[in-house]
UniProtKB/TrEMBL annotation:
Residues 61-81 have a biased composition (Basic and acidic residues). The lineage of its organism: Eukaryota, Fungi, Dikarya, Ascomycota, Pezizomycotina. It comes from the Eukaryota. Residues 57-81, 365-385 are annotated as: Disordered. This is Uncharacterized protein. It comes from Glarea lozoyensis (strain ATCC 74030 / MF5533).
Length: 426
């Protein structure tokens, strides 16, 4: 039986409503309103997450559900609903109080059930983006496979040259004990000073912890018990490195390209999004029209279909949201991911491109390496599928943070010029 060309299969799937297909929707939030460095990514929206508000809020009557007043039991009220709706002032006062209480809960990961490392909610996928603070250094971000900053690390990514390039480092070695210490940094006993010979760059332990630096508990444990991380015989190396590049800032301002295992990927701007109907929906759509992006991969049809040229498959889509805390929604189309993996599995699992698959000596392999992995793959195919999803999420976060930081710089420059014009005119 002849295999259908990938162009026809992709077109048939794309003709469907991707939002209704096998899709995972990840909601991207700033960890709190004042923090633009750390992000939490969940499949459950904040407004739909069942949480228990603090007791102080419950005592004041600001519960998570609206309260109603009972009608007096009289003949006139016989047969009616038995409740009356609160006044408009009471409704909005309670609503704002509940929203404020929920925000306080979300700002503390230990109160968020989605960030529970022991018993997270079922069917809830989550990620956490953490930027460690170490004065005098620019350490890389860590992408973690749970909704808190103590979860297993999926990859490290480091911005360079004013968002022109992001370096992503993947590998199960990141989940081994001691490689990432309590500060969220690669410990110097497992890395090198400048990342020589393809190793991870390590950061030394300091004798003094400065204000607001990461790893307060880790620092005092080191002072009390001494250095608890042993020196590694072999320095840690990432399995593969991906470079996400902002190729044409002045021509294609919303395009980021990278190569993964020999295939060309690109985040490109798009205006084809499904905007949920809300109040002032037209205003929200107009303000964020130029902030949406989609992830495509370029593939070639096989055999006699090669003359058709390269085909583009849409793997994911990012929809920007006009909100103080929520950055947007990331939709991952699993049908398209499965199509891409099924057609190119041999090329993806073989050595080539920018992947490093080194054969290690069995005596030097950590027997707990797979046990510590956040994915725990049972086969090379499953590991490749999970790695592709991690690459999608990591590259999306690079793009999201880069776009957000660029907008912040533009606004800061705009208000600086306005202030200068006012002072000059006065």
């Amino acid at each position: 039986m002849e295999k259908a060309p990938i162009r026809e299969v992709a077109s048939a799937i794309a003709s469907l409503n991707l939002s209704d297909a096998n899709t995972t929707v990840l909601h991207v939030y700033h960890f709190n309103r004042e923090d633009s460095k750390n992000y939490v990514v969940h499949t459950l929206r904040n407004s739909l997450t069942p949480i228990v508000l603090p007791k102080k809020t419950a005592k004041k009557g600001k519960s998570d559900t609206a309260e109603v007043e009972k009608l007096p039991e009289t003949e006139e009220n016989d047969g009616k609903r038995g409740v009356i709706a609160p006044s408009r002032e009471q409704h909005w006062a309670k609503r704002f109080a509940v929203q404020a209480a929920r925000v306080k809960v979300y700002d503390k990961a230990k109160h968020d059930p989605r960030a529970d490392p022991v018993s997270p909610p079922p069917d809830c996928e989550s990620y956490f983006v953490h930027l460690p603070t170490l004065w005098g250094h620019c350490p890389p971000y860590t992408l973690r496979n749970r909704g808190h900053k103590r979860a297993p690390v999926v990859c490290l990514f480091d911005p360079r040259l004013f968002w022109r390039q992001w370096k992503l480092e993947f590998g199960d070695v990141l989940t081994q004990e001691g490689v990432i210490d309590g500060r969220g940094l690669v410990n110097w006993r497992h890395g090198t000073k400048k990342g020589e010979n393809g190793t991870l760059k390590g950061y030394k332990d300091r004798k003094r912890r400065w204000w607001l630096e990461s790893g307060k508990k880790y620092f005092y444990e080191q002072l009390e018990h001494g250095h608890m991380i042993p020196e590694a015989a072999v320095k840690a190396k990432p399995e593969e490195v991906v470079n996400v590049k902002w190729t044409a800032p002045f021509v294609r301002a919303r395009e980021y390209n990278f190569v993964w295992r020999g295939f060309q990927f690109a985040w490109k701007g798009t205006t084809v999004v499904d905007v949920q109907p809300k109040k002032f929906g037209w205003f929200r759509e107009t303000m964020t029209r130029w902030n949406h992006l989609k992830l495509i991969v370029t593939v070639l049809d096989q055999g006699e279909h090669l003359q058709n040229g390269p085909s583009e498959i849409v793997l994911a889509r990012y929809t920007s949201v006009l909100s103080a805390r929520k950055a947007g929604r990331l939709e991952i189309f699993h049908d398209m991911l499965d199509l891409f993996l099924r057609e190119n599995l041999t090329a993806l699992t073989s050595t080539g491109g920018n992947i490093v698959l080194e054969k290690q000596d069995p005596a030097t392999v950590d027997p707990f390496q797979d046990l510590g992995s956040p994915t725990e793959p049972r086969s090379e195919e499953e590991k490749t599928a999970q790695r592709l999803k991690d690459v999608v999420v990591a590259s999306a976060m690079c793009m999201i943070m880069g776009e957000f930081q660029k907008r912040e710089w533009v606004w800061a420059l705009f208000w600086l010029l306005v202030d200068a014009a006012q002072n000059g005119g006065g």
